[in-house]
Amino acid sequence: MLSREKAAVRIIDRNAAPAAESRALLVNHHTLDLLRDTGVSEKLLAAGNKVRSMKLTIGGHERARLGFDFISHPNRFLLLVPQNVTEALLADSLRELGIVVERRTEFVAARMDPKGLGAEIDLRTGGAMETTRVSWLVGADGAHSAVRKALGIEFPGAAYEYDWSLVDIKLGPDIEQDCMELCLARGAPFLARLPLGNGKHRIIANDPAVEELIPDEWEAGQVFWRSAFKVSHRMTDRRLVGRAALIGDAAHIHSPAGGRGMNLGIEDGVTLANLIRETTVIDPALMNKEMEEAMRTRFRQWERERLARARATLAISDRLQAIAATQSAMKLLVMPWALRLINLLPSVKREVLALLADARQP
User: Fold this and answer.
1) How far is CA 224 from its chain centroid?
2) Which whole-number Å values give the CA distances from 357 to 51, 141, 195, 249, 340, in the listed order?
3) N or C: which end of the chain has fewer CB within 10 A?
4) Which residues pair with 170 in a beta bridge?
5) Which residues pair with 56 in a beta bridge?
6) C-alpha dihedral, 341 to 342 to 347 to 353, nearest 10°
7) Mind spelling out the 3-state secondary structure of the chain?
């Protein structure tokens, strides 16, 4: 967004290469809308797998099915794209604008301008140090953010008690490629199947041994990636310090339930970039106190909106995770009826699917 307005932008990453793992999958509708003008949305739609329904299986038998045709968006499906593919498409878009991610370059320290005019920052590339001035410093450096620590912003929260594991794996040809599946069984962990296309699926469970839970009839084959993990619930109570901001996992982390983590980070970045672009086109020579205060007000409003959005997202992911992690006979009874009720009431169905897809009215 900023580079399209000829702003000088540097993106640094201490890692030598982008992540090779699939990691986050869901690219929701709001993200596609935000990225449409960049051309990335069309590439994501071409690269991803379109999931058009969800079914609930209990004890190996299908008990309910929910179609996604009521999503209030032209794309009436959920789009699954491995995160490494999404990142590659975003990097390609940056290269077209002349921006290449500076790898093996690490943020070390920042000294904020007392007049609120940016910051002086220290960077390290290999053994070489560099000091440079920036008009804006944006920390998108994850849960262990060095930028957040340099700004003195706390990151309160704690790890969930649940253990999770996942595997990206080849399954048999009879497994549906456009339908995700939630599997329940009495006394067994929750199991979900997310189709990635070309016979590849993500299986995830609230149990450390997901591969042992895969039903024989799925015909498990080649494993592409596996991971076991715990998830934390953390969120900052601030986003801004002068002209420094936190976005994405540097500001909020939560359960992957609901598929909002990567999407919320992209939303943070796009909305902040648009605001910086709109406010920095003003000629400094024409700036007066009223205009400065109006600009500060807009950034404070952005901060309030992002904090509220993050709180709502964490609440949603907490509720979805709690439902998934509960092992009870009552869940086996209630969930099929709940999905059938959603199918019978179109207004409720639209709300549930909007929650799943984060679809906004076009």
Assistant:
1) 21
2) 11, 26, 16, 20, 19
3) C
4) 200
5) 64, 182
6) 170
7) CCHHHCCCCCCEECCCCCCCCCCCCEECHHHHHHHHHHCHHHHHHHHCEEECEEEEEECCEEEEEEECCCCCCCCCCEEECCHHHHHHHHHHHHHHCCCCCEECEEEEEEEECCCCCCEEEEEEECCEEEEEEECCEEECCCCCCHHHHHHCCCCCEEECCCCEEEEEEECCCCCCCCEEEEEECCCCCCEEEEEEECCEEEEEECCCCHHHHCCHHHCCCCEEEEEEECCEEEECCCCEECCEEECHHHCEECCCCCCCHHHHHHHHHHHHHHHHHHHHCCCHHHCCHHHHHHHHHHHHHHHHHHHHHHHHHHHHHHHHHHHHHCCCHHHHHHHHHHHHHHHHCHHHHHHHHHHHHCCCCC
Token representation of residue 249: 């996992």
Q: In what order do the strands lie in the sheet with 200-205?
A: 61-67, 53-58, 179-184, 191-197, 200-205, 164-170, 223-229
Q: What's the CA gap between 6 and 226, in Å, rounded?
A: 42
244 CB contacts (<8 Å, ≥6 apart)?
110, 112, 119, 136, 137, 138, 139, 147, 151
30-39, 113-122, 252-261, 324-333: range with lowest mean pLDDT: 324-333
- Residue 306: left (phi > 0), alpha (psi -120 to 50), or beta? alpha
Token pair, residue 35, equals 């990225």
Does 330 score more than 50 pLDDT?
Answer: no
Token duo for residue 39 = 């051309």
Please report where in the chains the tokens 């000629």 appear, as a residue: 283
Report the relative pairing of strands 26-27 and 78-80 from DSSP bridges. antiparallel
Residue 174 has pLDDT above 90, yes or no: yes
Amino acid letter for position 268:
D
Is a pLDDT exceeding 90 seen at residue 133? yes
**119: its two tokens:** 């910051």
Q: Are 228 and 165 in contact (CB under 8 A)?
A: yes
Among 53-57, 90-94, 138-142, the range scoring the smallest mean pLDDT is: 53-57
